[in-house]
Structures are given as structure tokens and as C-alpha cells.
Design brief:
Blueprint lengths: L3 E4 L9 H9 L19 E4 L4 E4 L8 H5 L5 E3 L4 E3 L9 H5 L6 E11 L2 E12 L13 H5 L5 E4 L1 H23 L1
Antiparallel strand pairs: 1-8, 2-3, 4-5, 6-7
């Protein structure tokens, strides 16, 4: 089972701390400069309506439409998640159209190449942009989960899923017993 982050809208206060943590975790050492409007690129999005606010991010689907739509096999399953191999990404946006949750995006980044000890600028390159579960943070897990002030975000893995199902089944059995009584 792929891991993924769930959001509980009843706990979310819409503070956008998750977006800031995500942008900083992926700022490639840019630090606070990664929060500048032109470079602020969180892989999680806060959605606010009149009635609810919640974070929306990649679900790391088991049979991911984005994986199936990628013509260059740049989106792959790795370490119980769906990851983008940027060096293979064409920026074609097929993944954006295929994602049923609207969480896949394509951004432009500087295109550079190293050649004979020199860095050559080649303009810009488009690449797929989505939650990667902060895979580079290892055991620390996703930055958004660790900073959420209300614990509205949870990393769901097999154990957490099994526990959630156990609690729901128990609650359903208790409700059924009350109805029968």
C-alpha cells in the first residue's frame, strides 16, 4: 500500500502553515528566499470555502492515473509512494489532465547543464510538480504533517489505515447494537 497524507477539515484552521513548510522543505537550500512570491511552490494546497478549509495534496494512488498518462515514464512508484523523475519529465501536462484530485501541476524551473566544469544556462524547463511525501527527509516524514498546529494532517500507512478501519468497524457495530436495542 502506498503511503499518503490525509487532511481532517474539522481540525483545519486554514493557516497555510503546511504550504509554507512544504515550500521550505523543497527550497533546495534557498531558505526564506523560497517563500518569495515568484518562487513559492508548495506541493500541497490550502482550499478555503465559506464553510470549510482543508489541505489538498497527492493521494499517491495505487493505480495512479498520472503514472498511466505519462508518455515518458517519468512518474513512477518508489518507496511506497508516487514519485516524479524530473530528468525524464517532458512537461507535457498529461498528468495534470489525468489527476482526478487536481493536485498535479507543471512548473518552470531554470534549465542548466554542467559541462567541463562550467554551468550552462539553457533557459527554462517545465516539470511535473506534486507531493513527494518529503521523501528526502527520510524518517522525519512530510514537513506538512510535522508542523500542522492542529494535527489536521496525518501520514497514512498500512498500520494507520488498519487502525482507522478497526475504529470505524467498532463504531458501526456499536451504532448497530444501539439501533437493535
Amino acid at each position: 500500500m502506498n503511503r499518503f497524507v490525509t487532511a481532517n477539515p474539522s481540525k483545519c484552521i486554514g493557516c497555510r502553515t503546511c504550504e509554507v513548510a512544504c515550500a521550505l522543505a523543497h527550497s533546495d537550500g534557498a531558505g526564506v528566499e523560497g517563500l518569495a512570491p515568484d518562487s513559492f511552490r508548495p506541493r500541497i494546497r490550502m482550499v478555503k470555502t465559506a464553510d470549510v478549509s482543508t489541505a489538498v495534496m497527492c493521494h499517491h494512488c495505487e493505480d495512479a492515473p498520472c503514472v498511466n498518462a505519462c508518455p515518458n515514464n517519468a512518474i513512477v512508484y518508489r518507496q511506497h509512494s508516487v514519485q516524479v523523475e524530473q530528468e525524464r519529465c517532458l512537461g507535457c501536462k498529461n498528468c495534470v489532465l489525468a489527476c482526478p484530485f487536481g493536485v498535479m501541476d507543471v512548473v518552470t524551473v531554470p534549465a542548466v547543464r554542467q559541462f567541463a566544469g562550467m554551468t550552462l544556462s539553457l533557459g527554462v524547463k517545465a516539470q511535473a510538480h506534486k507531493c513527494d511525501l518529503c521523501i528526502e527527509r527520510g524518517d522525519a516524514g512530510p514537513a506538512c504533517v510535522s508542523v500542522c498546529p492542529t494535527s489536521a494532517l496525518t501520514l497514512m500507512d498500512r498500520e494507520a489505515m488498519d487502525e482507522t478501519l478497526r475504529r470505524r468497524r467498532e463504531r458501526a457495530a456499536l451504532e448497530a447494537a444501539e439501533v437493535a436495542a
